[in-house]
């Protein structure tokens, strides 16, 4: 999985916020449909979506996972349920 739909992204953000409310800190990772996304990557995603929204006045259709500038690629670690 290289990107999330807007629906998947919103669900991830809701779960991160709920975790923070319950535990007082951000989770080490978020899981979306079996894709484990590190804190660094999901924070980068949130920052990019907020920047896109401010610049264009609309939400993106898809959200790339992680930072392509640092690694040169996009990916997530799949976990088995």
What would you note in describing this structure?
The structure is a single chain. By secondary structure, this protein is of the alpha+beta class. The protein has one domain. It contains three helices and five strands. The protein has helices spanning 6-23, 39-56, 68-71, and strands at 3-5, 29-32, 35-38, 62-64, 77-78. The strands form two sheets. Strands 2-3-5 form a three-stranded antiparallel sheet. The protein has a two-stranded antiparallel ribbon with strand order 1-4. Strand 2 and strand 3 (35-38) form a beta hairpin. The longest helix has 18 residues, at 6-23. It comes from Methanobacterium congolense. This is Pseudomurein-binding repeat-containing protein.
Q: Let me know the average pLDDT.
A: 86
Largest sheet: 3 strands, antiparallel
Provide the low-confidence segments as ranges. Answer: none
Structural class: alpha+beta
Termini separation comes to 16 Å
| Whole-number count of domains | 1
The number of helical elements comes to 3
Radius of gyration: 12 Å
Apparent shape: globular
- The ordered H/E elements are EHEEHEHE
Give helix % range. 40-55%
- Side by side, the strands of the main sheet go 2-3-5
- Count of extended strands: 5
Strand content: 15-25%
């Amino acid at each position: 999985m290289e990107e999330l739909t807007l629906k998947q992204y919103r669900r991830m953000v809701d779960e991160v916020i709920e975790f923070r409310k319950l535990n007082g800190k951000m989770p080490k990772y978020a899981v979306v449909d079996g894709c484990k996304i590190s804190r660094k990557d999901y924070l980068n995603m949130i920052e990019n979506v907020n920047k896109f929204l401010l610049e264009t006045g609309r939400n993106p259709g898809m959200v790339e996972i992680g930072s392509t500038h640092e690694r040169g690629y996009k990916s997530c670690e799949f976990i088995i349920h």
